[in-house]
Amino acid sequence: xxxxxxxxxxxxxxxxxxxxxxxxxxxxxxxxxxxxxxxxxxxxxxxxxxxxxxxxxxxxxxxxxxxxxxxxxxxxxxxxxxxxxxxxxxxxxxxxxxxxxxxxxxxxxxxxxxxxxxxxxxxxxxxxxxxxxxxxxxxxxxxxxxxxxxxxxxxxxxxxxxxxxxxxxxxxxxxxxxxxxxxxxxxxxxxxxxxxxxxxxxxxxxxxxxxxxxxxxxxxxxxxxxxxxxxxxxxxxxxxxxxxxxxxxxxxxxxxxxxxxxxxxxxxxxxxxxxxxxxxxxxxxxxxxxxxxxxxxxxxxxxxxxxxxxxxxxxxxxxxxxxxxxxxxxxxxxxxxxxxxxxxxxxxxxxxxxxxxxxxxxxxxxxxxxxxxxxxxxxxxxxxxxxxxxxxxxxxxxxxxxxxxxxxxxxxxxxxxxxxxxxxxxxxxxxxxxxxxxxxxxxxxxxxxxxxx
Length: 453
What we know:
The chain is of the alpha/beta class and 453 residues long. The protein folds into 3 domains: 38 residues; 208 residues, Rossmann fold; 170 residues, 2-Layer Sandwich (Ribosomal Protein S5, domain 2), CATH 3.30.230.10. Helix content is 27%, strand content 26%. It is built from 13 helices and 21 strands. The protein has a 9-stranded mixed β-sheet with strand order 6-5-7-8-4-9-10-11-12. The chain is globular and about 70 Å long. The chain starts with a strand and ends with a helix.
């Protein structure tokens, strides 16, 4: 092997380095995650680090000047909500999602809004300038402050950013960038990590906000080393079925805000459109006088979201009953069905059960437990529930209905959408007794809730 080159094995999950291949990573304990990479050892970095060693000094916390109110507005309210109020200058933001979900469309719309007041650079390694132009024509007019660059060489990209010094940079995508100093193919562990490290230094050193698009694997995680998500400031995931019209933007990491907020968008021919009232959007098309259908309320950060839970219980044609859960945790549904059999004597050992959250959205909050229970019992007994009724509450193994967070916000959202009855945990009545115009029903356990069917 040539002098200065050596082989290192990287863990694709956590970025751990080993001198030889291992079946299991000793750090993250994952199996078959090591890949071989050739690393070129250069003395350039060591020389620059040695030259700057005497100039670095530490400062006290009181000497640091930071203003949290200086945030840049993207012009898209749903995106600003997920980011915690806007973009923090100098931050590195990773946007991941399935192919065709709308990542590039969303970021091009951000460029469209922010280019009216700031300099923006859109760097694409996957599309030509003509392809970007065709996509931009569907969105409307763009300002001259938006500059386009089709390049994948990392050194060239870095030179353009340092010379132009834009306020916002879009990298689409990080898997296409490559450095000539790294002897591996674009998209490999070494190239992705090196490229992200370069963009991190540019963002922090020049106070430039950089969005990078990341491809996802078949498991739904960002492709490349797991250390990629640790290096960036914010990780956003674009969720939803590419064949459906809605999209959900969810923050899974945010150093400058909450990670519980979501943004809801609708995909149209002109691009992504914000959904101002997601609850009304999710309940559109709800059937009338149908058994097994109930409206529940879940909280996504500070936003209450009303969803329709559907259940279908029928006799099985096989020896073993089938259980299916779409949009919620499969094991949680099995647990709630076991509680129904034990606490109220509902025998479903010879019945198939299918539970679905309408609209394709996925919810795992325990507050929808009571809605799942009522939907299953309603379908089992073939008795429809009141169409103007909404329920929420966590169900324990003893059949008790436990309190959930922010009950008042949930009740107010139900009232705003015209619901007349709200079934809530008995212990939460004291927090919502000042809400007028809607009937409040408190239940202590699932036996009390059965009286509603």
